[in-house]
Amino acid sequence: MLDTLTRRLAGILANLRKQGKLTEDDVNEMLREVRVALLEADVNFAVAKSFIGRVREKAVGEEVFASLTADQTIIKIVRDELTEMLGTEQTRFDFGSQPPTVVLMCGLQGSGKTTTTAKLAKWLVAQGKKPMLAACDVQRPAAIKQLQVLGEQVDVPVFAKTDGSSPVQIAREALERCKYLMRDVLIVDTAGRLSIDEALMAELKQIHDTVRPNEAFLVLDSTTGQEAVSVAKAFHDLIPITGVIFTKLDGDTRGGAVLSVREATGVPVRFTGVGEQVDALEPFYPDRMAQRIIGMGDVLGIIEKAELAFEGEDMTGLEAQFKRGDFDFNTMLDQFRMMRKMGPIKNVLKMIPGLGAQIPEEALEAIDDKGVNRIEAVIFSMTAKERSNPDIINSSRRKRIAAGSGTSVEEVNHLIRQLYEMRRNMKQLGKMQKQFMKKGRKR
Ligand SMILES: Nc1nc2c(ncn2[C@@H]2O[C@H](COP(=O)(O)OP(=O)(O)OP(=O)(O)O)[C@@H](O)[C@H]2O)c(=O)[nH]1
């Protein structure tokens, strides 16, 4: 997800760190590179321009040039401005003052609207809600069946009618049924538009005015780039959209639309779809996304994934370990066990601070569960002492471990280096976060 941009920005900012004192020219050069990276990622031109302008202005205002911590201040400014561009704070779900909460789903055909409706229902169930779905897409008979199948998958009832009732009528009846059954959220799936078709748009407005939703979500396909931003403008002109859900962020996407939509339309991104399965939906946090894009990883995101995978288990130990950066091979084994539960390992690795942007893309692709089995074999061939204190693993021990695990000494060396590297990255991140917090408090 946004891998190319992350790699580029992390590289540019890492160069900045190496330079020591910075002149205004250094910063201008860096900003030029950032601008190119944003445009290459398909960020809207006006959005990129105003972003760069704001960063430059702040850098001048904070008199960073020639100061010893100029690099860190600039990175903080870039991070803060990216967060601002993405919407500053996570927008909370508006459940309204009394149930049922009504959520209207709209979008172009094929954007992933129906799948996302089911994903959202599953997410709401995890929040302790009792949702119900309304199938108002009568344009495409298969859409009703699709929603029913998905509803069954996530164990949520679906209200549907095939007697020629109009979508507005179905929506109205669904709301009544929802109240009667005391379900607390109604999610209304509407017909997908092929393009901004007037008749269908009028119908959408009518449904909107009938059910008066607390949340009106527009589902956008992130692979369509800036086109998605134009679609958002058109929908938002017609009905007040309260949030955008970008789908297919797991695919090969440059991500520019995700970065520009809030600033271009005022509508925040609320969720992202990261796969075809019904649980592949992630709430959107502007600050975490910004941190991730500049290569600082997403520790909170990892912890959240872990919490979901390990419902009820105490995760404070893991959080503290991440923060202190003091893990050994035992914790690495633990983490592999956890990562397996958290989804494809390469996705989790990408969220580790400093690591995601460093591992070449091909290498990440090659990291599959088989690769992890090999690493585990190496660790299993270590003694308990070696696992908890890798400093004692000298060359004869390395040979023994390689022979015992059926791997090579190079592989063992590589793994030991990786452990030290991860420790270093974690510590660095911990320090940077502390400094950022201190600076933030001073203001
Ligand atoms: N990879 C990936 N595929 C997705 C995601 N969300 C949806 N899809 C796929 O996109 C395709 C279209 O999804 P639908 O939910 O049928 O699209 P729709 O917008 O409801 O289409 P209409 O009902 O025609 O309006 C399906 O094959 C989905 O599996 C996602 O986040 N990632």
What does this protein look like?
The chain is of the alpha/beta class and about 450 residues long. The protein has 3 domains: about 80 residues, SRP54, nucleotide-binding domain (Four Helix Bundle (Hemerythrin (Met), subunit A)), CATH 1.20.120; about 190 residues, P-loop containing nucleotide triphosphate hydrolases (Rossmann fold, 3-Layer(aba) Sandwich), CATH 3.40.50.300; about 140 residues, Orthogonal Bundle (434 Repressor (Amino-terminal Domain)). Strands 3-2-4-1-5-6-7-8 form an 8-stranded mixed β-sheet, sandwiched between helices. A hairpin with a 7-residue loop joins strand 7 and strand 8. Helix 1 runs antiparallel to helix 2. The protein starts with a helix and ends with a helix. The mean pLDDT is about 85. Guanosine-5'-triphosphate binds next to helix 5. One of its GO terms (molecular function) is 7S RNA binding.
